[in-house]
Amino acid sequence: MKRLGLVLTLVLASGLPCAALAVPKVGQPAPAFSLPNVDGRTVTLADLKGKPLYLNVFATRCVPCNEEAPVIGKLSEKYRARGLTVLGVNELEDPAKAKEFLSKYHLGYGAVVDGDGTMGKDYGAIGLPVHIFIDRSGIVKTYRLGEMDGNEIESAIK
Description:
- 34% of the residues lie in helices and 22% in strands.
- It contains five helices and seven strands.
- Strands 5-4-3-6-7 form a five-stranded mixed sheet. Strands 1-2 form a two-stranded antiparallel sheet.
- The longest helix has 18 residues, at 63-80.
- The two termini are 22 Å apart.
């Protein structure tokens, strides 16, 4: 939490408009998105409605994102049979980097590419990683900026 406070202090000191700090609110609908996946097919939030969804906003250059990836992969496999959809959101990189990340960690879930940062802004990605857990109705249940360990991720999934 201390790291999050430092990040927020730095962002506020940067003079960014307050709208850049907008984050999805727990108990409210998740912001809509429409992004290409690593193969170029468009994925929207509406496509995923009716399933519990875990969005993991990451970048290949992010050390905590790399550290979390194997754990997220294992939890994705564990909860897939219960209907959980895990979707990586590669922030400000190209599809080739996102594909390489999925392959490097043998991740069995997909990823979309937020090449221009629009979704990142809508989802408050002022730092990485970002974890968003959305229920079957499209309501944000948990929002977390910063790294999570396996127990925290699994608790949020449940």
